[in-house]
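In this supplementary section we document a worked example of the pipeline. Step one takes a protein sequence of length 101 as its only input; no multiple sequence alignment statistics are reported here. Step two produces a three-dimensional model, which step three serialises into structure tokens for compact storage. The input and output of this example are shown verbatim.
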Amino acid sequence: MPCREEFPLFEEQLATLGPTDGLQLLGVLYKDDPASAQAFIDETGATWPSVPDADGSIAAAYRTVAPPQTYFIDKDGILQGIQIGEVRPEDFETQYAKIAP
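The serialised model returned by step three reads:
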């Protein structure tokens, strides 16, 4: 499951870049069973907020085609990059360079 695979990377980058560069993460629960999603959050100890998207309105606004998708939004709220599929370390590095302070 891609979410499980990329979780450690997000956790590591948040711990590293959050305090120095202000990196913030937000999970959007799209096409996820709410109970299963909460169990995953509890199991992994995710420290970032997650919001439900039961009606798909967030996914529609961001034109989600295939979860997981990761959006890289700069400090001014401008979308600078989209990663479709699992984010690997080299993907994160490339996408984060677009929004890094």
